Automatic annotation (TrEMBL):
The organism's place on the tree of life at top rank: Eukaryota
Coiled coil: none
Keywords, in A-Z order: ATP-binding, Kinase, Nucleotide-binding, Transferase
CDD domains, per the entry: arginine_kinase_like
Domain Phosphagen kinase N-terminal intervals: 6-91
Residues annotated as binding ATP: 122-126, 185, 229, 280-284, 309-314
Origin species: Drosophila rhopaloa
Record's protein name: arginine kinase
Gene Ontology biological process terms from the UniProt entry: phosphocreatine biosynthetic process
Enzyme Commission code: 2.7.3.3
Length: 357
């Protein structure tokens, strides 16, 4: 009976989304037929159902995507919904397509995007990793969050050289320190409403934390949206150097942790937008002339397959003319190709800015 009631409630909420003017990929691709096909399915190992996948998008009609995978098997069991969303977001990755083998290549192939420091405030490259054998947020409990954290910490203490650093758990962290780390763009913000309604913030702050190297240009986030986020960041536009630091850190960590990589979808992540390489390479950039022509900027971003975000992250505004511009697609191409696409795009934007002056 309880199951019947839950199904009825999900149907009501689905109808509301379908009748709304939401621009989310969930609304676009979750047809009535697919909804009916999937509504009573569950994943074999962790028993997740459709509501776990779509609850964020049902809550927030202003989602860009609105879909998450509660566990790795969800990508297969609910493929009828995930596949078209993945194809749309990653610009044409079809259900027969396969993520190529990892190839990081050399960051030094990419020249500094802004050697005179005119446009780029800072550059950041991140990737996400899941640990094999564990489900994602909606299926984790306080003890599994802690178990993941302790596995990650065991690997972190083995990092050496420029990656060496300390792990700071969120539990018991000084409020001023937490605020400073967030303001410096080093640490994730708590209370993301999209993650919250996706079931990704339960037992907070248990098992969550940040590892920071001595130079504060290499970070590892523990149990935020993904089990692991590996991040490299510094002032200026030396994308190649930032990328190499992340890639070497990923390689070092991978010697001590088995990452969950799918043959077809590449590295598995909670959000389907992060599959494949899971790399987001971004610059905080000032383009004063292009900012005055938002339509032109939007057109250029589409041409170069770039995504524009606000200054303090996704779903925020651009403060002081600083935008966060990054590669949109992460799946269907190698790590090296992702960085190349982003490098060419930013180069193109800077050229357009110079012409628009
Ligand atoms: P992600 O999914 O990559 O973690 P978010 O949009 O949630 O992205 O941003 C996380 C944090 O990283 C935010 O504080 C954001 O301002 C910061 N950030 C992203 N790109 C840059 C950059 N190029 N320079 C400085 N900070 C950045
Ligand atoms: C949304 O749907 O807006 C959020 N769930 C975040 C989706 C991830 N966004 C992205 O473009 N990488």
């Amino acid at each position: 009976n309880k199951d019947k009631e839950m199904l009825k409630e999900m149907e009501e909420r689905y109808k509301k989304l379908a009748a709304s003017n939401s621009k989310s990929l969930l609304k676009k691709h979750l047809t009535k037929k697919i909804f009916d096909n999937l509504k009573t399915k569950t994943t074999p190992k962790f028993n997740s159902s459709l509501i776990h996948c779509i609850s964020s998008g049902l809550c927030h009609h202003d989602s860009g995507v609105g879909l998450y995978a509660p566990d790795p098997e969800a990508y297969k069991v609910f493929a009828e919904l995930f596949d078209p969303v993945i194809q749309d977001y990653h610009k044409g990755f079809k259900k027969e397509d396969k993520q190529p083998a990892s190839c990081f290549g050399k960051g030094r192939d990419f020249e500094n995007l802004d050697p005179d420091g005119q446009f780029i405030v800072s550059t950041r490259v991140r990737c996400g990793r899941a640990i094999k054998g564990f489900p994602f947020n909606p299926c984790l409990r306080e003890n599994t969050y802690k178990e993941l954290e302790s596995k990650i910490c065991k690997a972190l203490i083995k990092l050496t050289g420029e990656h060496k650093g300390i792990y700071m758990p969120l539990t018991g962290m000084d409020q001023d320190l937490q605020k400073k780390l967030i303001d410096d763009h080093l640490l994730f913000k708590p209370g993301d409403r999209f993650l919250d309604s996706a079931g990704a913030t339960r037992f907070w702050p248990a098992g969550r934390g940040i590892f920071l190297n001595d130079a504060k240009n290499f970070m590892i986030w523990c149990n935020e949206e993904d089990h692991i986020r590996i991040i490299s960041m510094e002032k200026g536009g030396d994308l190649g150097r930032v990328y190499d630091r992340m890639a070497w850190g990923e390689e070092a960590l991978g010697k001590h942790i088995e990452f969950n990589r799918d043959e077809r979808l590449g590295f598995l992540t909670f959000c389907p937008t992060n599959l494949g390489t899971s790399i987001r390479a971004s610059v905080h950039i000032k383009l004063p002339s292009l900012m005055d022509q938002p339509e032109e900027l939007k057109k250029l971003a589409e041409k170069y397959r770039l995504q524009i975000r606000g200054t303090t992250g996704e779903h925020t505004e651009a403060v002081g003319g600083v935008h966060d511009i990054s590669n949109q697609r992460r799946l269907g191409l190698t790590e090296y190709e992702v960085i190349k696409e982003m490098h060419e795009g930013i180069k193109g934007l800077i050229e357009a800015e110079c012409k628009a002056k």
